[in-house]
Design a protein that fits this description.
There is one protein chain. The protein has 21 helices and no strands. By secondary structure, the chain is mainly α. It has three domains: 178 residues, Growth Hormone, Chain: A; 181 residues, Growth Hormone, Chain: A (Up-down Bundle); 85 residues, Orthogonal Bundle (Arc Repressor Mutant, subunit A). GO terms for molecular function: DNA binding. Keywords: DNA-binding, Membrane, Transcription, Transcription regulation, Transmembrane, Transmembrane helix. Pfam families: GerE (PF00196). It comes from Candidatus Syntrophonatronum acetioxidans.
Amino acid sequence: MSKNYIFLSLSLGTFFGWILSFPFNGPVLESFIISEGYNYSLGLIFIFFHALGFLLASTILKEKYWKTYMFLALGICMAVNISLFFLSENLWPAGMVLVGTASTLYVMGWAYPYINLIERGQRIRFMALSMIISNVIFVFFNLMSSYLNSQILLLVVLFPLLASLGVTCYLEEDFTPLAAEEASKIPGGLMFILGLFIFGMYINGGFMYSVVFPSFAQLEFFLYVKYLPYIIVLLILWHWGNKLPVNLMAYMGASMMGLAFISFALLYGTGEGFIITNILLESSFVFLDIFTWTVLGTVAFIYGGSFKFFGYGLFANVFAISVGNMMGNHLIYLGENYHMITALFAASAIFLTFLVLPWLGKHMERDFLREDSKALQPEMPSPLNQKKLEETSTNMIEFPQEDLLTAREKEVVELVLKGYTNKIIAQKLFISENTLKVHLRNIYKKIGVGHKRELMSMVLKK
């Protein structure tokens, strides 16, 4: 693994570890609320403004300042974290508003190197590793919340932020962007359906936090095992994830979530019910989390406009959790059968979301394969034309724009004209396929063609 790979994974993992442990209804926040007797829904305030921040960031942020956004976010989050020692109760909500909005800057800034440095084939394992790091931190603070007072927890939770700051300093700024330079044509249909799927699934995340977990909180072993399935499934995906198709993640996540709420409705209040529900629910969110981050990275890579895709996608994600949280807070007061009513709401969201899964899978497969096979892979010419191409490419063909090509780009053109696939060209030149894609894009722009078919046609006409 490269240094950038490790630093990028550590930077997100430590920052998310802080978010999960503190402002995102984390154990540090809960401990402080209980000890100080606060009546505000501070976690919900954070989640709402975290979602709003993603929506705003998708329209106003500039990609070239990505690292500046990360440092700015870290500075604000650390300042607020420290100031909470001294702020009165009435000012804590304002602190959550500020942290919720500022933390989106870090995630959005981080998304830019993630899209451009992590290849599609590595993204599942990469995100699994990042989430393992964040959840290990989260579990640590869950355990420590039983032994440390709220003031000490609030101090110790600064360390993940400091670690994230240290790692962020080592992220390289000078790299060649592999994604499309601009969002040439944002696929509105894909964005809408993907956002609808994310919203429909993650509204159940709000039910999990506000209804499911509180229902089992009285069990003695609840604190120690509730997040164990999540980490175990992440470890499995970290080891074997790249062998699984991304679309399968969505189907597995949706199916396991449906089974989880069925078990919650039927086995509510029992230890066995908690174990089954928790395993299914936590496992489903592993698949959905990996799917969401992997797909957002891939579509942003293909179409460009990384901040737009991540902003809209993560807005749907976090806003759905806030809506589910607010709904769950009302459902839990509907009487003894609230668990059945919650399961019905969850099932309705899941069934409606299943309606868009086939379309989403078809759209993704069409766009992703078209990008790989049509835009990148050469269209194989007929045997007669192949012979002409081989004869022509023996000596580099003279384009009017030949002087604009670098030596490496000329090598790429020569291998393209010989009919080699992208994979073979990358192997012959000892470069990655993503780097080859950058060369091809530059070549097409300089020569004035749109894809390899036009390049070959130009040769055959000469």
